[in-house]
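Final report, Chapter 2: Outcomes

The project's central promise was a pipeline that accepts a single protein chain and returns its three-dimensional structure in a standardized token representation, suitable for archiving and comparison. That pipeline is now operational. To close this chapter, we reproduce one record exactly as it appears in the project archive, with the input sequence first and the structure output second.
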Amino acid sequence: MTPGAYDEHGPGRLGELRRVLEEAGRVVVAFSGGVDSALVARAANDVLGPDRSLAVTAVSASLLESELDECRRLAREWGLRWREAATAELERPAYVANGRDRCYHCKSELMDVLSPIAAGEGAVVALGVNLDDLDDHRPGQRAAAERGAVFPLVQAGFTKAGVRRAARALGMDVWDKPAGACLASRLPYGTPVTVERLGTVASAEESLKALGFRQVRVRHYGHLARVEVPTPQLPEVLGKRDAVVAAVKSAGYRYVTLDLEGFRSGNLNH
């Protein structure tokens, strides 16, 4: 994809995104593999080239191994300059306590890791935040902004739907990838975040994805797991009841429940 493609009046606001990135000059993109950060990483590489853009994936216990593999694949396919960087949010007591400001401490850790990398590149840190994200409870955005991060998708006027249209127009196969979130979001506020709990959630979700459930959350309540899938898939869960129960119990849960309200991103914020 050539930079000129971003001047076309096609889906989304790609021309405006190109202008924002060119104005930034050099960027280090926090690349989680989700469609938002993927669009920023891809566009930065297309517009600025690998000499002026670097995609960095933060690696910790809160990231699914399959998501890290996805980042590797996309970086290879798109020719991104890419690297991993370990983060240590689990060493921050305020993060482990899992209050309503958990994401603030998580993004603080991310920025503490990415900022020196960006300084070495003479770049700014860019995050895949879109306009719709601004309406949710996202204290992490405040932490990132306080530390100098930029949000190119917000600056270019992208909504979540606009991001997906633009990603599809660019031929990105992640354009319809289900929304993701760090594994700590599966723990109710007040439940301390531990490596063991994150591992249990990760194991259960990976097993359910292997059964064909692309959009799934396993909310952690001690020995009880509350499974969320989109409401149209509720009958499918019941049809695969034995396999679903076995998959979740094999991760370490004693009780398996199905949320009849279906999947809701960030529902523990309400």
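Archive annotation: The two ends are 41 Å apart (CA to CA).
This record, like all others produced under the grant, will remain available to the consortium after the project formally closes.
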